[in-house]
Write a structure and sequence with these properties.
- It is a single chain.
- This protein has 330 residues and is of the alpha+beta class.
- It folds into 2 domains: 211 residues, no CATH class; 84 residues, no CATH class.
- The strands form 5 sheets. It has a 3-stranded mixed β-sheet with strand order 2-1-3. The protein has a 3-stranded antiparallel β-sheet with strand order 5-4-14. The chain has a 3-stranded antiparallel β-sheet with strand order 7-12-11.
- Strand 11 and strand 12 form a beta hairpin.
- It is globular and about 60 Å long.
- The chain starts with a helix and ends with a strand.
- The structure holds zinc ion.
- The site of zinc ion has 6 residues, from strand 3.
Amino acid sequence: MRRYARTILVAFVFLTIFTAVITGFTGEDDPGLKETFDPDEIIIVPETDDIEITMYNHRTGKLEKLPLEEYVLGVVAGEMPVSYGIEALKAQAVAARTLAISRLKRFGGKGCSNNPGADVCSSYAHCQEWIPLESMQKNWGSSFDKHYNKLKQAVYGTAGLIMKYEGKPIEVFYHSTSNGKTEDAGEVFSRSLPYYKVVSSPEGADLTRTGVTFSNKEFVDIFSRYYKNSLDPNNLASQVKINGYTNSGRVKSITIGRITLRATDFRMMYGLNSTDFTLQFGKGSVTIYTKGFGHGVGMSQVGADRMAEAGSTFEDILLHYYQGVTIEHY
Ligand SMILES: [Zn+2]
């Protein structure tokens, strides 16, 4: 094991320096990558016992066995733009690894609930996104080597590290973009968790409002797919009412006709970016404006990148978005 770790370390340092030399002349097109090629940085790869995880690949319909860190690499590549700061990518790696570990039976997990026999699946809609090496090669083209090197730094630079609360792997949630604050898990999922508090998130200029417009008929048709109660398409404004807001400023519940539903259900029904929404009724149509993207619980990936940009380490980022956790080897 010791020799294995040292071999990876030597190979990694060599690769980092080698890539630095090669890309020193061409790497200017991506300023976010400069930090990857710090030849002084020594990556210590902690010794692990090479846990193997079983993943259901939703693209091929097959179960695949992968070494943990190789799996984490595919998740970080699939879940976060590689142009993000290295500390944000490291935070993503720890979050991805924590989710995987928390699903393993030997750590008290129950596996992927959609796919018996799998610890996790490769879909962002269920466990977390994972992409194979071929997709990275296709997506990154001639930049593959430098991007892949940066990913390896994020993953092997945090190898084995996960987030724990009271000694156990936490239940991991993260999302793309908050509305400037994160959400209490209890507002979105079935229960609150002590490490998901409402905290500020530095999205900054990325916080724009996005509008999606439905004709009154479309709005009524979508509603009637879920509820029998009919709505009058000619008088929508008087039949729709926002009832209140969560502590993070997102909508808590909305009443439509005689039905009151959670904002998270309304978001799902109408395919909205987030539950931070406002409705604007026009002549024959309604426009729903949203802020942020995702459920808002846990780390905001954009917020993590802003923190990295401002000099935060991956530990700073994780301890901000996951309050009271410890970061330690699994
Ligand atoms: Zn799954």
